Amino acid sequence: MRNLVLGVLFTSLFVLGALLSFLWTPYDHTVLDIANKLQAPNAAHPFGTDQLGRDILSMIMVGARTSIAVAVVAVGIGMGLGVPLGLTAAAWRGGWPDEIIMRGNDLIFAFPSLLIAIMITAVFGPSAVNAIIAIGIFNIPVFARVTRGAALSLWTRDYILAARVAGKGAGRISVEHILPNVANLLIVQGTIQFSLGILAEAALSYVGLGAQPPTPSWGRMLAESQTLFILAPHITLFPGFAIVLTVLGLNLAGDGLRDLLDPKLRRGVQ
Predict the structure, then answer these.
(1) Domain tally for the chain?
(2) What CATH number should be reported for the domain holding residue 50?
(3) Does residue 255 contact residue 5 with C-beta atoms inside 8 Å?
(4) Per-residue pLDDT of the chain in tens (270 residues, 90 and over written 9)
(5) Running DSSP on this structure, what letter comes out for residue 107?
(6) pTM of the entire predicted model
(7) In degrees rounded to 5, what are phi and psi of residue 22?
(8) Residue 193, exposed/middle/buried by CB under 10 A (0-12, 13-18, 19+)?
(9) Angle at Cα 41 formed by Cα 23 and Cα 233, nearest 5°?
(10) Cis peptide before 214 (omega within 30 of 0)
(11) What does DSSP assign to residue 26?
C-alpha cells in the first residue's frame, strides 16, 4: 500500500503541474530573455533559466503536458488494438488466427520503438504525433501477449465451459467472462507501459524525433543542455529529475496496484 501512495503522490505532482500549465505558468515558455540566461535557481526563477533565458520551471510544466499526452494516447492505441487481438488469439487457442496474430506481434517486436519512429519520421517528418504512432505500434504486441497469456489460462475454467454449454459464442465469452477477469492485469500493465511511454517520448525527443520547437519536451531539454552541464548543471538536473520521479512514481503505482488487485496478495496488503 505504501508503494501505491508514494506512486500516486509523485505522479499526481506532475499531472497537476501539466494541468496547471494550461492556465498558468510562472513565465511564458516561448519568451527568450538572453540577458538572464543560465541563471542559477533563485527567488524569481526557482529552477533557474536555460541557455536562452527561458524559465526552466515553466518549461518543465509544459513539457509534462507533452510527455503525458504522448504516453496516454500511445498506451490507448496499444490497449485499444492489442487487447482485442489478444482475446481473439486466445479464443482460437492455436488456430490460424492465433498463429497470424502472434507472428505479427513477433514481427513488430523485432523493431524497437526508436527504429519504428525513425522509419515513420523518414517518411512524414519528426513530430509528437509520429512519436505517438511509433510508441503506440510498439505497445500493441505488448498488450496482445499479456491479454492472450492471461486469457488462455481462463479458457479451461469450469465457468467458461458452462458458458459454452449455455450456447455462448467465443466472442461473447471473451467480452462477458474473459475480459473482466483480466482487467486487473491490464490496468497494471497499462501503468507500466505509461511509464515506458514517457521514457520513450523523452528518448525520441532527445534524438530530435519527438515534439518539435517551440513545444517544450523533457528529452529535448536534456539534449540541448548536455554540453552546458559543467557550466550550469541545473538546466540538466531538473528535467532529468522530472523524468526520474515521474517514471518512479508510475512504477511504484503499478506495483501498488498489482498488490492491491491481486487476490493472492490482497490479504497481505490489508
Answers:
(1) 1
(2) 1.10.3720.10
(3) no
(4) 788 898 999 999 999 999 999 999 999 998 899 999 999 999 999 999 999 999 999 999 999 999 999 999 999 999 999 999 999 999 887 788 888 999 898 888 888 777 887 788 778 888 889 889 989 998 999 999 999 999 998 988 888 889 888 888 888 999 899 999 999 899 999 999 999 999 989 988 998 888 888 889 999 999 998 889 899 999 999 999 999 999 999 999 988 888 777 655 554 444
(5) H
(6) 0.89
(7) -70, -30
(8) buried
(9) 110
(10) yes
(11) S
- Contact yes or no for 224/50 (Cβ under 8 A): yes
Q: Which three cell numbers stand for residue 53?
A: 533565458
In which domain, by residue range, is 11 found? 2-269
Position 184: which residue type? N
- 3-class DSSP state of 28: coil
How is residue 75 written as a grid cell? 498506451
Distances (CA, A) of 158 to 161, 176, 187: 5, 15, 25
The DSSP string of 137-162 is HHHHHHHHHHHHHHHHHHTTSHHHHH
Residues 6+ apart with CB under 8 A from 133: 77, 120
